[in-house]
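INTERNAL AUDIT FORM
Audit reference: QA-55
Scope: verify that the stored structure record matches its stored sequence.
Auditor: D.O.
Record contents follow.
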Amino acid sequence: MKIAITGKGGVGKTTLSGTLACILSQGYKVFAIDADPDMNLASSLGITEPITPISKMKDLIKERTGAEPGSSFGEVFKINPKISDLPKSLSINYDDKDNLKLLVMGTVDKGGDGCVCPASVLLKALMRNLILKKDEIVILDMEAGVEHLGRKTAEAVDLMIIVVEPGLKSLETAERIKRLAADIGIPKIACVINKASNETEEKFVIEKLKEMDLEVIGSIPRDENVILADMEGKPLIEYPDSAAFKSIEKIAESILNKVKD
């Protein structure tokens, strides 16, 4: 099962990604992939140690592609580097149970590095391997779009979840993501509402998403425990009685049922 989670910046997709990964790892093997330039998934899991993103591992990139990161335009490098061993060797274990592993992809800097370079080639190859080859559940915490996914890898994503908060800007981003996802063949798209303070806000978002023909599979209420968990550097799973956590538990069950259908 491969799940991509996206949405406008600041809507809470990283909290959803990390909490879903924790919940699902209680019964399955899970890879949590941080593919967002902000790279906050580790902190949402309560991991505080410094992590070097794969995009900044210059020696590894050179070893696998044959070229230095940021090398000049026209330099020859491997476009199909060996990466089958990397998910295991580069991942960080969430705990000693070995059911949840974290990979921090990082991003290729704009400008000098460009979009077709040794670092981006390695990241895309690694993404393909995780989505097409791995038997574990893979949860992708993505940037606001589908840029990390090529057409073939997108077709293998079982579900894309767009996190939406009350507000027109967030809804506009959801509509754009829906169009992009359809263009590259993602088969199932659904939405999760986050930070709704009351029934009026929730109803507003549901109605707008219905107009876009987007299904809602859950709603996470505004919850001070989410802020507290962030301040204390703890995963939300350590606040099992919080309204937000209980809502995400229901969303996890809905996802499992949806993917099985």
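Auditor finding: record pair retrieved intact. The chain has one domain: 2-260.
Action required: none
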